[in-house]
Write a structure and sequence with these properties.
4 strands, globular, 168 residues, two-stranded antiparallel ribbon
């Protein structure tokens, strides 16, 4: 549905995860083995990924100034399962995030690391969800003022403008 460029850096993972559900059609990529494999998930990991997806969607709606689409587990509670620590490369001094508990990069950890990096870069608040209730597709708002409202001006934006026009 989105005609925008993907989000930068690790936010592309968050964007891809949230956009696994097409609300309008009901199609959920996490229902397929290919969709699960895309995120390194086994068949039993779909429910946890869905819970994380909907919590991320609620935060992206909040970034755009909209209420949550439904009641969800707070994102902070979900990401508490994936504590991070800073590791340093002794040769070059480069810092990077690793799981604090030593697990091999599960989805929760990868999302937490992506959010932490986006916070540092100042890009996290620009990951937003479309205001159209039948869409809520996540997009990265590259507008200068950071006030984008729709995932696609040619689809959701046009529909909203047409509804406003007809209401007049």
């Amino acid at each position: 549905m989105n005609d925008r460029a993907p989000a930068p850096g690790g936010l592309a993972l968050v964007q891809a995860l949230v956009n696994t559900l097409d609300i309008e059609s009901g199609a959920d990529a996490l229902d397929t083995p290919e969709g699960l494999a895309r995120f390194g998930l086994a068949a039993g990991g779909a429910e946890g990924a869905r819970e994380l997806r909907e919590s991320l969607r609620a935060v992206c709606l909040a970034h755009a100034g909209h209420p949550a689409h439904r009641e969800v587990t707070p994102l902070g509670d979900l990401l508490a399962r994936a504590p991070l620590r800073v590791a340093l490369d002794p040769a070059g001094g480069t810092a990077y995030l690793v799981p604090a508990v030593g697990t091999p990069a599960p989805l929760d950890f990868r999302v937490a690391a992506a959010i932490a990096e986006a916070l540092v870069e100042g890009t996290w608040p620009r990951l937003k969800a479309c205001e159209a209730p039948t869409c809520h597709w996540v997009y990265y708002d590259r507008s200068p003022a950071g006030r984008g409202r729709w995932c696609s001006m040619s689809v959701c934006g046009a529909r909203a403008k047409m509804r406003r026009y007809r209401a007049k």
